[in-house]
# Entry
Amino acid sequence: MSENSFDFDAGDLCLDYANTKDWHASENPVENLNSYDDFVTWGEQAKLIPIDVARNLRLQTLKQPEKTEVLLENAIKLRESIYTIFSRRYAGKPIPENALHTLNSVVQQAMSHLQLAPEEGKMKWDWIPEGNGIDLILWSVARSAAELLTSEKADRVRECEDDRGCGYLFIDQSKNRSRRWCSMESCGNRAKARRHYTKIRTSI
# Structure
């Protein structure tokens, strides 16, 4: 079982998924989905699949290694498409057609497996019990991305502005929409220290 502990602080499921690669905008990004097991672990930590489903999915690695390798490639392809869409949208750049096509293809699959179900006197969307655990992870992520892109919150999606290429995507919850960093403890403090150093140098 993967020992990875993933971050879920971006403010939206699809952004959490996009952030499974560290330093995404740098020349040397760090991959955290290095195996099918890592991907299943992410889905489990995101509470998209229960423990028993995750256990059964991990068994597929032993039974069908070639199939799980393809599934991981497709999962990473979706992640890169989501990252590209939100990153370029924040930068005011055109969104590549292939990225949107990849997302749309999974969204279409997801929407065809949704149904209305009653819950405590109300109605909610729920998955038709047909897809496997991998489907539920990818469908949930794609649906999250589609809902975010078509909501008012889309204008609050930011990318960490660290000049080293942090690339962390997040929803800016600040009242004046002024958040620029993944966190002040890391990239924010570095930027603050750099500005202070520059100010001292220019005053000498």
In short: The two ends are 56 Å apart (CA to CA). The mean pLDDT is 89. The first strand starts at residue 21 and ends at 22. Helices lie at 13-18, 36-45, 51-63, 65-91, 97-111, 133-149, 184-203.
